[in-house]
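QA checklist item 7 of 12: single-chain prediction sanity check.
[x] sequence parsed
[x] length recorded as 215
[x] structure emitted
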Amino acid sequence: MATGIIYDLDGTIIDTEKLHEEGWIHALAPHGITPARDMLSYQKGRSGEAAAKYMLPAEMQHLVNEVREVKFEYVMKHLGEVPILVNFTETYEELKRRGVSIGICTSARPEFITALKPHIPFLEELAQMTVCKGMYERGKPDPQPLLTTLEKMGNVSPRDVIYVGDAESDYQMALNARIPFAYFCAGEPDSKIPVDVSRMNDHQQIFRMLENLTE
């Protein structure tokens, strides 16, 4: 069995997809922009700055920071409404019982994670194994965030972990870090992620993937 699992946070552990989409719609509305589906898909797994740059036309790039902050404030106000995804809590407890190391690698800001902790207690347990924005220089899909997480986990070998994420940027980062990837997909699959990539819609499915890694 693999010795470690690294999880993305947004859309993988917690169901924030709708909240982030609502945040971007709210932030862009005063500027006369209604984000298209491809814009909302692009923002998954990426920093607020990268997403805002993508959504704003060239003549409005000076609004990147403003739009990003308005969106972030909206999300922060509604964090208490965010549910934990299917069977993650039960899976987390079983992984701990089996002695599997667990890390989190996310592009979320530290204050976002801090605000979530009262609603999601296990985030406090994983604080020392969590890598977020500000702890690396190059974000997804660069491998640096994942490799930094491995260091926090005690320099676990890339071949002995699985990275679980829900976005193409997660998949590309795992490829660049040479770490096996599992695609968590609770809704419509992303066509940019190859169909032969391991997929799951329930976190308990990770146990079979762990077994396959060593077969």
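[x] summary fact logged: The mean pLDDT is 91.
[ ] second reviewer sign-off
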